[in-house]
Amino acid sequence: MSRWLAGIVSVLAVCLPLMSASAGENQSRATVLELFTSQGCSSCPAADRLFGKYASRDDIIALSFHVDYWDYIGWKDTFATKITTERQRGYGRSLSQRHLYTPEIVVDGRKHTVGSNGADIDQTIGNVRKAPRPIVSVGLKVEDGVLVTMLSSKKHHAAEIWLFEIDRKNDVSISRGENSGHVLSYHHVVRDIQSLGKWEGGEQSFSSDLKSAREAGRDGVVVVVQEYGQGAVLGAAQVWLKGKGS
């Protein structure tokens, strides 16, 4: 990452590294799906293809994070960084996971499941949406190359705000490792992570210069508001800098 601001199908098919809201709150917001994947994981291509379908849905905000702990097996993931890996480790702590694995899907920061198992992903999305979820209004607009994020809530929320720069789609030719000889497609790949700071509720706005995102050719940005300690997602929104949708 260029900067850091403020601050299985079955279990056998999964790659393992060696090592309160009150009821009645509005539920009608997009669900955030975060896929943790690797170009060096033989079980990940099926999840990456499936993730493309979720990324095309209007009721989903999709983010694909590439981890670096598979780089040792012969292919260095071209999108992986220590910061993206650390985000998965953060969920490992907040969701009390015994180990990290790929492909993993995290739904709204609340539940995790195998990224290649569509039935389990759909069930997890349904279960998360049925449960009471606090809703934070997240408005985004771009003015003169600056992203303005407007947050609003009638309740107190101890939250952190994250900005993710994304590529809509990347095709990568893999020449070594477990996926050698394949050209793989990745959707909504996170290329940069920024912390926009903390928020305690009420109405507040944050401004972010998009110069580097535009210079790097990024397709869009996503803002996620979630409880401290990389907890449950409270709200999210995305804006495309180039074109429309995925």
Describe the structure.
By secondary structure, the protein is of the alpha+beta class. It has one domain (11-21, 28-240). It is 17% helix and 41% strand. It has four helices and nine strands. Strands 5, 6, 7, 8 and 9 form a five-stranded antiparallel sheet that branches. Strands 2-1-3-4 form a four-stranded mixed sheet, sandwiched between helices. A hairpin with a 3-residue loop joins β3 (104-107) and β4. The longest helix has 13 residues, at 82-94. The protein is globular. Mean pLDDT is 88; it is low at 1-13 and 18-27.
How confident is the prediction overall: mean pLDDT? 88
Number of strands: 9
Termini separation comes to 23 Å
Dominant shape: globular
Labels describing this entry:
single chain; alpha+beta; 9 strands; 41% strand; globular
Secondary-structure map with pairings?
Elements: E1 31-37, H1 44-55, E2 60-66, H2 82-94, E3 104-107, E4 111-114, H3 118-130, E5 137-143, E6 146-173, E7 183-209, H4 211-215, E8 220-227, E9 233-240
Parallel strand pairs: 1-2
Antiparallel strand pairs: 1-3, 3-4, 5-6, 6-7, 6-8, 8-9
